[in-house]
Structure of NAD(P)/FAD-dependent oxidoreductase:
Amino acid sequence: MKKLVILGAGYGGMRIMQRLLPNDLPEDVEITLIDRLPYHCLKTEYYALAAGTAADHHLRVQFPEDSRLNIKYETITEIHLEEKTVELSNGEFVPYDTLIIGLGCEDKYHGVPGAPEHTYGIQTMGATRRTYEALNNVRPEGVVSIVGAGLSGVELASELRESRPDLTIKLFDRGEIILSMFPRRLSTYVQNWFIDHGVEVINKSNITKVDESALYNHDQRIESDAVIWTAGIQPVEVVRNLDVEKDQQGRVVLTPQHFLPTDENVFVVGDCASLPHAPSAQLAEGQAEQIVTILKKQWNNEPLPEELPRIKLKGVLGSLGKKHGFGLMGERTLLGRVPRVLKSGVLWMYKHHSGS
């Protein structure tokens, strides 16, 4: 039997399994999935779990059930490309014929002293659970500082405002206006929403240090009961340790067919892959669809296409609490209740019709 090993059950790994099982996996191929958790997690909704407005079990999607799917619940410590094995924390070595690396990302602290030790994050389910506990235990009328006003920071701040109206929430943003990568009309709407709802946005910030009870913006000390870090991501350490070509963000450089230039049997999907778009669940799923196409051609000994179609992204939807939101669909900016309803609908469809 040929061994297809998938590292990580994120959006990319999950979509690959859904597309291959039950009908499109050759009889001489078996899949081994390696992940720490016994379910797929809706990472795009971690902000709601951290803020206490979504229950843990609402963020879970079960894995496909198939006799040819073997699952190992372990932590991956190293990938040995020359030996074609994956090393696990229990000392086991898992051999592969084809490998798909979909291990996702972790927080990037940009060398800020104290940030790794004294901040909370929402990049993994485990980290998000710890953040939820920390926020739940913040004293009444306490201060929560959120560093980074990208999509994650914005959604967390707005959701926390609804969950804990007693808190003073400070949102630190490096730009002149929040969500500066989006059209100005959208950025202005979101920034004004925060002003209207009593969230303090500190633009042009530069966090220089974090300690146990405060952060420092331009070296000015700001007391905080909890500091949440949403100010950048990087590939997980296992991928950072791989001796392969990477881009400036540390993501793995791939061929147009999504495998390593040096090994057509090693694919990288999702946040660890160097692609022309910012990492997202949509991008990982689109890439996964193309990887499945390449896998089928490899298994059938068919020639591979020199180029693949550009992955089409439908747009971005973000929430501002449970009643308001924002979005960008092509050139069209959406503000208010409509994008929030759309986002809820997309989430419902994913949970109940995932892979169909």
Observations:
- The mean pLDDT is 95.
- The chain has nine helices and 23 strands.
- The domain at 2-36+74-105+233-299 is CATH 3.50.50.60 (FAD/NAD(P)-binding domain).
